[in-house]
Amino acid sequence: MNPNKKILIAGASIAGPALAYWLQRYGFEVTVVERAPAPRYGGQNIDVKGAGRQVAVKMGLEEAIKAANTGEVGVQFVNEDNEVEASFPKDNPNGLTSELEILRGDLVQILYNATKEAVRYQFGTHIVGLSEQAEAVRVTLADGRTEAYDLVVAADGLRSATRQLMFGDEPDIKFLGLYTCYLTIPRAGTDTDWARWYNAPDSRVLLLRPDNKGTTRASFNFLGDEDAYQHLSPDEQRQVLREKLAGAGWEAPRLLAALDDDPDLYFDAVSQVRAPRWTHGRYALLGDAGYCPSPITGMGTTLALVGAYVLAGELARHPEDHQQAFTAYEQRLRPFVEAAQELPPGTPALVYPSSRLGVAVLNKVAAVLASKPVAAISAWFNRPEREPDNNLQLPDYEHDAAYS
């Protein structure tokens, strides 16, 4: 193999730069294209855990991630009067907060800083045409430029346009019956280092989480039909959110006040990507573009980091035949991905009660789960060797693969 084999990656969020990090380390010539005009440093809390944390250690980035911790100490379920019904500190196995809790934008910046000197980034453009030929792929970008690459990887998220060019409608975008909105709001006196989860009647959830920027990261989620709110303009999205937030109580007025001012507002249908294959020819899918597990699982970042590590490692391990590398990538990673995508029965509807009685019952259940006896039992059942992401054996590609 030419050690400077040219690979194009679509997407400069987490999966794309992580893949670029490993590929350039193995001697590949890497280009990343990103539709946004610059790295996108917005976004909500994410976590790096299990096998994803192992990859971060291999990259030498664990300490940087720790230093950018959001400071969240756990999550509290609260009622409309902001009274705490249940508390799940960081070490509670039934909680939402992990040890490596970081803002999405901070991880993007860490990955970009670790790759920008050795990787060519092209911002403000995206792939609009792909023509696979015998020895290369002819790529057309939105700005009119064309160039040939040996391989092209789609890492541009759940709604990947590059995936559509590669695989058409073959991957299944599985809607989970839930819509979500993310936004950043000014910090208020009621905010602490605890995340606060509030259930409102009519199957609505508000979640406020601390960050390390002096603001608060908010999310608003509600159950809905698949076709109800797809393909809306930003103004139409905001109108839907106003209607859904109306009468929710608690801190809903803060979110309503921020709807028109937050440039990073995000609204989408919560979905998973189920693709029968992640590669064909000279194309490959990575991260959310290939196997988005949904935010419900908390595994998206880990899958992105691990997928990047495995894909790059297999390409380095099989220098003469990218098809062998692609086959090994799928075989090694698919059981891990399928386990990560599994959701408990009734999810997400179980934690989105429609009545006030249902909300009261859910808060009582949360209090039981947060209790010390139940937490101890859960810790036993959720000990590391039982975690699906810790059951993945990560190869030591750096010692196996010959690279300069």
UniProtKB/TrEMBL annotation:
Oxidoreductase found in the keyword field: yes
Keyword field: Monooxygenase, Oxidoreductase
InterPro entries: FAD-bd, FAD/NAD-bd_sf, FAD_aromatic-hydroxylase
GO molecular function: FAD binding; monooxygenase activity
Key word Oxidoreductase present: yes
All copies of domain FAD-binding, residue ranges: 6-340
Transmembrane segments: none
PANTHER family: MONOOXYGENASE, OXIDOREDUCTASE-RELATED
Protein's recorded name: FAD-binding monooxygenase
The species this protein was found in: Hymenobacter gummosus
